[in-house]
Amino acid sequence: MIITELLKRIPVLEIHGDDSREISELVFDSRKVTENSLYIAVRGTVADGHSYIASSVEKGAKAVVCEEFPETLNENVTYVKVKDSSKALGHLASNFYGNPSQKLKLIGVTGTNGKTSVSTLLFDVFKNLGYDSALLSTVEIRIGEKIIPATHTTPDVITINKILAQAVEEGCEFAFMEVSSHGINQNRIEGLHFKVAGFTNLTHDHLDYHKTFDEYLKTKKRFFDELENTAVAITNVDDKNGMVMLQNTKANKKSYALKTMADYHGKSLEIDFNGMLLNFNGKEFWTTLTGKFNVYNLLLVFGIASELGFEQDEILQAISKLKRVSGRFETFKSDGGIFFIVDYAHTPDALENILDSINDIRTKNERLITVFGCGGDRDHSKRPEMGNIATKKSTLAIITSDNPRTEDPAQIIKEIEAGVEPQNFSKYTSIPDRKEAIKMAIKFAEPRDIVLVAGKGHENYQEINGVKHHFDDKETINELWKLMSK
């Protein structure tokens, strides 16, 4: 594609060189520069891409987009000056791949908890409705039946456009995407055209990155502020920050709720470990998904599908065929009668939601044993909060390692223990080795007891000192159960 085509709708401050050059690839990582590529110099949190302009030119870049021209300009290279390279990158990527987000209906889901579940459930609902779609989530990236491994909640904007272009090529009409606060803050959704944006909730998380809750909220809100007037924004009005998201949006505003009046209103009529009988907008249906948080997730799915023009009865039929999302309230019963639940809950709110959902269902004749930890190199302030929640709402809490990363697991556990209230001291123990912690839970459990293993969900690794070791909670439970029941 020629440079002038790539620069459409991008405010350019200055161009030096031939703007009719043909570009073969877009690159913002100087290590990946190839012959005839366009290098975008982005100022990152760790390094400034402007420092690598010269080396990129040496490697064969024929064009450079930057905020400042280098002192020495190569006459065989075209230099384009813009106000913000990071924002320009999104529009360059959209133009390079033929603006794929305008050729299908792109749906973005943001919030602290539920992004993965809602995005994946939407993908599955539309499959049940007979449509091929794309999915960009934490767990996986899918184009129809094709699976691509996911590395970030929100991939970089070049990758997003490349995936969406593939989806268009393969006949997909819809794409469902998790939109993280990191992705919004780092302009990874710049230049994308969203048809519908959904908000789940906003609770304590990622304060290691955003520093304050207010900054975190403003970042999430920016997603809605930047929607076009042809889009729909649908928010959870039971969440105290739900209406904040819609304050400045130009999009058509819609709401969903269980407790208050809303465009999409839900009620749970029956709930147990096998599923739920629900009522959405006066229509009853059964789902094998369970837990109050899943009522919210499904209600948002229902609202989004309705806003995309589908009949409510056919949406509910498609929802009733859904299976549970991997690592999200995933349940299985051992042949010894112990009920196991594996869930990704790794924030105070998510842990409280899952424990409340279990306690709402259980008869209290069964004990609830919770195995959990907190990730290293992440927000420290949520650790004591999770220690308090787990010990308060479980019969026994076993504090263990999650992904300690570069931190000492014993120090993480100490910070979690700091939140345990004196009356709950007898309700917890600490075992740093996650496998041993799960083993302890199985040993302690009796028939009909419930064992929740929280924090990792779908993940099949444990990151220790920067190295990922294979570790799968479900696999470990099954392996230990077989060994211990012999």
TrEMBL record:
Subcellular location: Cytoplasm
Amino acids binding meso-2,6-diaminopimelate: R378, D402, N403, P404, R405, G455, E459
SUPFAM superfamilies reported in the protein's UniProt record: MurD-like peptide ligases, catalytic domain, MurD-like peptide ligases, peptide-binding domain, MurE/MurF N-terminal domain
UniProt pathway annotation: Cell wall biogenesis; peptidoglycan biosynthesis
GO biological process terms held by the UniProt record: cell division; cell wall organization; peptidoglycan biosynthetic process; regulation of cell shape
Domain named Mur ligase C-terminal: residues: 327-457
Keyword Aminoacyl-tRNA synthetase: no
Recorded catalytic activity of this chain's protein: UDP-N-acetyl-alpha-D-muramoyl-L-alanyl-D-glutamate + meso-2,6-diaminopimelate + ATP = UDP-N-acetyl-alpha-D-muramoyl-L-alanyl-gamma-D-glutamyl-meso-2,6-diaminopimelate + ADP + phosphate + H(+)
Similarity comment text for this entry: Belongs to the MurCDEF family. MurE subfamily.
Protein name, per record: UDP-N-acetylmuramoyl-L-alanyl-D-glutamate--2,6-diaminopimelate ligase
Protein encoded by which gene: murE
